[in-house]
Amino acid sequence: MASQPFAGVLVPVLTPFTPAGEPDAGRFVAFCRFLLDQGADGLAVFGTTSEANSMAGAERMALLDRLVASGIPAAKLMPGAGACSITEAAQLIRHALGHGCAGVLMLPPFYYKGMSDDGVYDFVAAVIDRVGSAALRMYLYHIPPQTQIPFTLDLVGRLIKAYPNTVVGLKDSSGDWNNTKALCEAYAGSGFAIFPGSEVFLLDGLRAGGVGCITASGNVNVPGIRKVYENWKTPDADRLQAEITLVRKTIQAYPMVPALKRIVAHFHHDPDWAAVRPPMTRLSDAQSAALLADLAKIGFSLGEARREAAE
Amino acid sequence: MASQPFAGVLVPVLTPFTPAGEPDAGRFVAFCRFLLDQGADGLAVFGTTSEANSMAGAERMALLDRLVASGIPAAKLMPGAGACSITEAAQLIRHALGHGCAGVLMLPPFYYKGMSDDGVYDFVAAVIDRVGSAALRMYLYHIPPQTQIPFTLDLVGRLIKAYPNTVVGLKDSSGDWNNTKALCEAYAGSGFAIFPGSEVFLLDGLRAGGVGCITASGNVNVPGIRKVYENWKTPDADRLQAEITLVRKTIQAYPMVPALKRIVAHFHHDPDWAAVRPPMTRLSDAQSAALLADLAKIGFSLGEARREAAE
Fold first, then answer.
1. What is the pLDDT of residue B2?
2. Which of A19, A245, B208, B240 is deepest in the core (most CB within 10 A)?
3. Which segments in chain B show pLDDT lower than 70?
4. Does A32 have pLDDT greater than 80?
5. Taking phi first (over 0 means left), then psi (-120 to 50 degrees means alpha), and beta for anything else, what does residue A270 get?
6. Residue A310 above 50 pLDDT?
7. Partners of A11 in the beta sheet?
């Protein structure tokens, strides 16, 4: 198994859009810098939470160009390479490697349903072969609620075996702890990096051999989640985990991406941040008010989090 | 409602790949010409059956360039504009209109699940607005088994009302006759063109006010399906329908796209035609033999079909 560029708390960064619906590179760069300043260990830009699949490949690549040009270290970046074609996935990965990104997050092809493990294996293998770079560190992205196409336990093992220096980790957004646990039991021992896709499973994951988490709510709660990561072997760990679980469950009672954007808009005093790209829709005014009231009720404040991070 | 450029038997054309996995423009052009010679009323290139979603937008556009350059009439073409981003969908549509294509087939965005009708409406509206052409004739593509995101009966009505000269028809690949029937009852009367996504529903669809079908098995059975279309008001209609339904059901007992490609490879004496792009996989040798035996048993021959078409 190759060296591991990532561990800890990674954030699938929200993508801001202008009022005209275009990706907003300026706000994006500033927000990425804010997340790193807060203590994020890495930025999984262009993931599901990023609405990456509502952007053309060219739009994602232009944002990455801007991010790297602005001085965000490529060693902290794990761009998503989600695409339904081998051609586009390979193009996105080559572009990321050209910038020196430390890894990429790899969705399975997600249009055709009912595809076999053999077919998904062939897809990933063809992408790796087409990229043809020893520098590639690929993290598989298992998110069946969106893709309907899984990276099964068996398929993951086949890919690790065939590409031990390339297929080095996985983000598990199945929401199924038993799946994460089975992956850890099967592959963590050999150095394969397993990240639950929600901080709800961060502590359990670390105890089972996982290495952190890649989580949407990192966009608004890096400091809280980092505390669990830093203190997971202490007697305080379960209490800290309960705190971040409560924040997460409060947010995910609403449509996740619009809710996170609404929270950022509120705490960063920047209403334009609430914009989403279709097919997503913004929270209604009533939902927004209820969400912010729910967060106030549990004492959550992004402002406080920022102050803590600066201490 | 605007004039209707399409009716009858449309084929979502299979896309041939070279042994190296690249789209094979030469074979593609030849095959499109063959289908038109057989009597196809239109070619819905870059649909689900075309493995379009396993090709980058640039690959699809390059194939369309070759097709039009070869003399295939753009008036017969309804390219698919399947994409998850407004940006890419609009780009594909502008390219098709630039070639004078008579219409486009429009998938909903298909990565994010559980999106609302409002969100899908916003997506389609944004694409139409971005394209900004009075020449656009858009056919909605309802295929929930793949997209999981439907064009609901209500949403279709909203889009027709907002864009009566643009949203002029729909392909229903739900496989649910009750849905096709409801669409016909609600919208066929005003001139909205409804195509079932399988010839199994061709006769029922015509009787309910539909205008033809857009069907995968058209790749291997245009003459048979055309007979139903030409004779649907005659006493022979039900017998002819039963014949094509039998062919369809025989083929779809196997994975559809690999099976169709295997049939083309066999009857066109061109083994390379059997190649698919991952995540699809070819039929095994045993499946291939069984499929061809099943077709022989019911007396199906693409060779005969070609001779009939030439009579």
1. 66
2. B240
3. 1-2, 303-311
4. yes
5. beta
6. no
7. A43
Q: What is the pLDDT of residues B197-242, one digit of tens each?
A: 999 999 999 999 999 999 999 999 999 999 999 999 999 999 999 9
Q: Say yes or no for a CB contact (<8 Å) between B281 and A119.
A: yes
A114 φ/ψ sector (left φ>0, alpha ψ -120 to 50, else beta): left
Location of structure tokens 């060219």: A58
- Rounded CA-CA distance B304/B225 in Å is 14
Whether the CB-CB separation of B162 and B125 falls below 8 Å is answered with: yes
Is B84 close to A113, i.e. CB distance below 8 A?
no
The complex's ipTM works out to 0.95
Distance CA B49, CA B276 (A): 11
Q: How far apart are CA A255 and CA B119, in angstroms?
A: 13
Closest C-alpha to A125, from A167, A95, A91, A157:
A167
Q: Say yes or no for a CB contact (<8 Å) between B279 and A109.
A: yes
Distance CA A217, CA B151 (A): 31
Task: Count the Cβ atoms, other than its own, within 10 Å of residue B80.
Answer: 25
Beta strands in A12-54 (DSSP E): 42-43
Quickly state the pLDDT bin for A3 (edges 50, 70, 90): confident
**Cβ contact (<8 Å) for B122 and A91?**
no
Q: How many CB pairs under 8 A join A and B?
A: 122
Residue A167 has pLDDT above 90, yes or no: yes
Contact between A91 and B148 using a beta-carbon 8 Å cutoff:
no
What integer pLDDT is reported at residue A288 of this predicted model?
A: 98
Separation between Cα atoms, residue A51 and residue B265, nearest integer Å: 40
Mean pLDDT across A155-175: 98
Which one, of A80, A98, A76, lies nearest residue A89 by Cα?
A: A80
Provide CATH code, domain B8-234.
3.20.20.70
* B89 to chain A, closest Cα gap in Å: 9
Question: What is the tens place of the pLDDT at every residue in B179-193?
Answer: 999 999 999 999 999
Which DSSP string do the residues of B143-204 spell out, in sequence order?
Answer: -HHHHS----HHHHHHHHHH-TTTEEEEEE-S--HHHHHHHHHHHGGGT-EEEESSGGGHHH
Are the CB atoms for B287 and B254 separated by under 8 Å?
yes
Give the closest-approach CA distance of B240 to chain A in angstroms: 32
CATH 3.20.20.70 for domain A8-235, yes or no, is yes
At which residue do the structure tokens 């209490």 appear? Answer: A239
Q: B218: part of which helix (H) or strand (E)?
A: helix B218-230
CA distance to A49, A82, B208, B228, per residue, from B169 (Å): 33, 31, 15, 21
**Rounded CA separation A11/A42 (Å):** 7
What percentage of chain A exceeds 70 in pLDDT? 96
Tell me which residue has tokens 């593509």. B141
CB contact set of B136 (below 8 Å; sequence gap of 6+): B93, B97, B104, B128, B166
CB B291 within 8 A of CB B275: no
Residue of B nearest to A283 (CA): B119
Question: Dihedrals φ, ψ of B10, to 5°?
Answer: -105, 145
